Amino acid sequence: MRVSKATLTGSRVRERRLTLGMRQAAVAKSAGISASYLNLIEHNRRRIGPDVLARLAQALAVDLAILSEVAEAGVVQDLRAVAALNTSLKAELDRLEEFLGRFPGWAAILVDVFRKATVAQNMVVALSDRMSHDPQLSAALHEVLSAISAVRASSDILTDVQDIDPEWRAKFLKNLNGDSRRLSRGAEVLVTYLDAPDKTSEAPLASATEQFDAWLTERDWHFCADFLAKPLAVQNDLQLLPTKSARFLAQKWIMQIEKDQKTLPDVEFGAALEQMGPDPRILAQQFGADIATVLRRLGSWAGLRAGLVICDASGALVFRKPIDGFVPPRFGPACALWPLYAALARPMIPLQQDITLTGQDGRVFRSFSICEASFPTGFDGPELREAVMLVLPQETAAKSDAQDVGASCRICPKNACAARREMSIMAEFV
């Protein structure tokens, strides 16, 4: 039984790409193939023709022989690398070929685990700071590393203990098989999570929220009524999002925009905005609309410099449109001093507050906030609250009259703050 050369070649292609820090889309374009085809190659689901392999080697700036070396030689080399990971345990290197000949399947599994572990460890180093912010990424990495530890423990026992009862050996092999499958699933989830397409950044977008934000950024956070009136075009646009979770967020936002546009049509609202200016109270009174709807329309209006933040009753940010000088945190809670949270505690009471961000250049923003309560399952059902905050630049407002707030405690340099929840990472530099 021989290990598939195509399998090892696909793994080498992926390892080389990750080492160079290149995206799948960039490598695929350079090699003249689709990103989806390259993904199948890297995950060992397609054979690689000599012409494609040559183009991939050129795109990855690597000698063709390194990608297409003899399979068994590559396996032996990687098994030696596995043995070198733990110098306190002496593996029988002189019997390596015997192990490969007798148990080629398990040898392939160990090599696959080693390669995935190497990739995972590199990811841990490169994304350590992000891991501290992103619980979904942390959980995925924990699952991979946990499976690696389990596989290594079982393989150490099988390697070091010579006289294992056949029944116990069978149990260890069964555990090794189960843990390797768990590692494979976990690694696949992690790779999908990190390799999500992102046209706005060189860094992979990990969470559905980031994918949703990037999708909105490409569309300038605005959807005109003519576009939304074409269901097929909308559905095709939604399919550009890489995950179901991101598409769920986008679909929910489009439904909200459609509802708001029916209350405040583009033509009429645009004319009123030009005549009266972006005062939410006046516009709400003009149209007989609720203030939250006006805030959402202003926050997504083309050509208007405006930030928009929405949170649910837990305080979690469910929508975050930044503007220059006011950027909501990507991960974790926002500043507790934001008027958004004061509005959350006082439903249906509009709040207006000038704010300035600590550590910024002193720019002042006027915030308009309100919280709405709803009962989607009936009056006797649970009450859901959602707070909306619109942020508009104020060129002439005095900073002395503005409330000093932060983005989040983690990056706020103001140590003497009564609302501080955690030490700022900036504390080491101030």
Rg calculated over all Cα atoms? 28 Å
Following the backbone from N to C, one meets helices and strands in this order, namely HHHHHHHHHHHHHHHHHHEEHEEEE
Chain oligomer state: single chain
The pLDDT mean sits at 80
For the secondary structure, the number of strands is: 6
Beta-strand percentage?
Answer: 5-15%
Structural class, by secondary structure, is alpha+beta
Number of helices: 19
Uncertain stretches of 5 or more adjacent residues: 1-7, 195-205
Shape: elongated
- Distance N to C terminus: 63 Å
Major sheet details: 6 strands, mixed
- As laid out across the biggest beta sheet, the strand order is 2-1-5-4-3-6
Helix content: 40-55%
How would you describe what is shown here?
This protein has 430 residues and is of the alpha+beta class. Among the domains are: 207-263, no CATH class; 267-429, no CATH class. It is built from 19 helices and six strands. It has helices at residues 5-20, 24-31, 35-42, 50-59, 64-67, 71-84, 96-102, 104-126, 128-133, 135-160, 166-194, 208-218, 225-228, 231-238, 244-263, 266-276, 280-287, 291-299, 339-344; strands at residues 307-312, 317-321, 351-357, 364-374, 384-394, 403-405. Strands 2-1-5-4-3-6 form a six-stranded mixed beta sheet. Strand 1 and strand 2 (317-321) form a beta hairpin. Helix 1 packs across helix 6 and helix 2 (24-31) packs across helix 4. The N and C termini lie far apart (63 Å). The relative contact order is 0.06. Mean pLDDT is 80; it is low at 1-7 and 195-205.
